[in-house]
User: What shape does this take?
Amino acid sequence: MRPNLSKLSFAIMSAISLQVSMNVLAQESSDDAEASDNTEIIEVKGMRSSLTSALAEKREANNLVEVIQAIDIGKLPDQNLAEVLENVTGIQITREAGVGTGVQIRGTNANRTEINGVSTVGSGSGRGGIDFEDVSSAIISAVEVTKAPEAKTIEGSVGATINLRTIRPLQLNDRLLSVRVQGEDSSLSTDSVTPRISGAFGDNWELDNGKFGVVLSASYAEQDVTAFRPRADRDNLVSSDSGAASAQSFDFLPIQFLNQDYDNYEYETKNLAGTLEWAPDDNTRFYFDAVINDQERRQESSRVQASGVSSLNNISIPDAFETVNFGSLGGTDLGSIQAALTGIIPVDLADDDDDPNLRFSSDTNSRITKSEIFRLGGEWQTDKFSVEVEVSSSSSDSNTPSFNTTLNFINPNAPLDAGGGNDNSVPFAYDLSGGSLAFGVAFGAEYAPTVEQLLDPANVVLRDVNIGQDIAENTEDAFRVDVNYDISAYNINSIDFGYRYNKTSSLRDQVRSNVGLRSMDDSPRGNLFSDVLTAGPDNFNAADGRSLYVGDFLLINPEMVASDPDGVLSTLNAAIIAHGGSRSISSPSSQVSGFFDIEEETHALYAQANFEMGIVRGNFGVRYLETEVNSLGNSITEDADGNEIVEQVVSQGDYNFILPRFNIVADVHEDVVLRAGISKDIRRPDFDDLSTSVTFSTSPNPAVAIGNPGLEPEEVLSFDFSAEWYFAPASVLSAGIFYKKRKDLFVTQQSDPFEDPVTGYRDITGPDCEAGGIFNPIADINVFGPEAGVGVCVPISTVINDTGETTQKGIELAFQYDLSQFEEQLGWASGFGVLANYTKQEFSGGEAENSATSRASNVFAATTGVDGISVSAIQGLIDLSENAYNLTVYYEKYGLSARARYTWREAYRSTDFGSTSSFPWGFPVVQEDRGQLNASISYDVNENLNIGIEAVNLTESDVTQSCVNEGALLCFQGLTDRRITFGGSYRF
Assistant: This one.
């Protein structure tokens, strides 16, 4: 039987184990035993000092680690932890609205994040740990990245383990008291400057019963970031022999969909970190750590959609075309085709009396997350033994309130839909030249509305209301015992062995309400709920100066939704009643189809020998683990009368692994260090990938994710070799290679519904989709059926284990040089220094493939001349850039500290495509090459006061995504802001 320990049981076991260990080891302790001096003095001030200390820590390590230390108390090189990590060789990051949110180490997202060596859990269902946007860099004193694990390193990482370290009070030489006050301004946000404040206090005291220390650090930050994200879909075909009015002498790709997405994220983050340490004597230390993070991320996004434009494909004649070269995919040369570039999509009542149409959506989503990490433990040592016992608990509780609405614009200059639908026609102009993906209302065309009509509440009707109160609860409780024994025999200095037990759980409860109004009979006009309407953002041209965009439209007021959602809901329901509609909006309720509760229990044992033989040192050992998984979900069926039957389904599984690990370091010269490592690790599947729960969207575009409870952990065997030359103070030149063999890689497979190549219609009958996909009963049929309504086949995605073995290899180069040693020769110029790194990596193997959608296959048949062509390609590793580099130039002298860092990464495949999770054309999109320039400058007014300014994305570099292949069909942009942070700090 597996133990099921509560937090109280953990604490009791910790105390008992520590006391027993101390009593046993005390018998071997002599009265004059001296404690080994392993104290690292925290005295970091200045860029050079932090770089020097970090290099010394890396150099002395017995395995491959990278370290970044704070420039000053509460001041890492960047405001965002993901961007801090971007300074490390082999690390690239992904951003959301310009803010670093994801970290790829050696081409993979499969990494672990710890705080003070304690596993953390995130707000989602992933295994990576706490979200980087939830933790302020102001409370972190150092970041440690372990690329080559030891036997005592906790399992679960493919790329590396990231450990965020806070200040230890007993390591302080002097009292610490500092405060930092800053303000941040965004170039695209319409809000004012947002505040940041952080502070730290620490001290230790010699008392009669030993030495006692405390450190408290806290931060409060508000952040307002904005991104404009236009999107254009051109994934259909007008063939030259189609007979359509729009047909040309050549085949071409018409406009399918146009979207103008404005995303605004407002962050309010509170972080508190505290540590108590007590050393009653030189051999004993007790500690208690607490890290509490409280964040609210509020999203106020608007979308302006030109929907139904595909209905005019046979009518709309582009004014200009561009050549799109699809390149080669899966060994098939896909050829080239012309694509619509500029033109007018007119209103043609004879062809369609309700398309194209104009929609305004307002997404008001929040993520309110409270994360807590607690650690209680103690250690005791003699001249031969040391033992550490620790109990820890990590939790992340999130509530994600959302209130998303869509309004249809009813053009008063065009007739209503003859079938009673609640949309009608609006002419559009588009201009996709220069990568602008721009569109707007064609004001000069027939039936065009005026600006005044666009802003008249009587000309909009309520179409969709989606309300959510989803709950996510993640926890991990752990107990560990670590023992070190100094044997000093046979070239073995010491051995480490230990045990760790952890219980991890993940619970999801979807609490939602969805209503879709598709007829004028059910949809109230905006003048019945004008009190909750407001004009949408009119600055969509602020990022690139475009002249063509929709700048005049109405939305449900996101500020009112955020402050009084019940009041807005009441107003909308009152409008439906006043209109005489038959469908009201209900309050959100738990969706049994989306519920899951998964628990894991793991027992791990390890043993490790640490050796030193002349110039050679290192360690070798093995880690053994057993894991048991229990999953609770719901099965939903129907009885003979069509009534829903809900039954709980419990599934169980278990697995065990032996993970050998070996590291060797050779100090072959006074300044040259060689390293090698071999290790085996595993990566457990994300919790939602194990669950069979289903989440349906009201949109027909996103794929419905179905979990796979049969997923096995991924196994990875890693080989590392590196050489480091410390040729000058605070300087290093290093080169390393890595090679990974990966088995059971997690890959996402998407099954797309069949679309008729002529009409574009999908199956809308349900409940099964014989030709692919899954029937979504609440999805809007939109253009995928002959009539308006809900219920249509949509894509389905599932994560599977790749049956083929995959390999990953790479080269990492790093250079760091400081001119301070040449002060006499260079004078003021001796303040300069440079850091640079370059990573090249490749991925090969695998058998899991992505296949073209039916619509894409129709296009490829035209470009290749092969009827019925089937195009597929091995998915490969998502978010892997083959080439990436960082270059930092800094200056520090006379109290002045300045730094400029340019980061570049090559194009990579991504599953993040605008506002949808589906694969356009059946393949992950390609995020094109991108570089970003950050800079900072600060000045020490005196020994206590420092003032400075920092800039992120100085050049306002945008994001571009292409469909099918790199440089092929531009389909998405992300126009991000420049953020300037200014302020000062004071050390008392």
The mean pLDDT is 89. The two ends are 56 Å apart (CA to CA). DSSP finds nine helices and 51 strands in the chain. The CA atoms of residues 358 and 779 lie 19 Å apart.
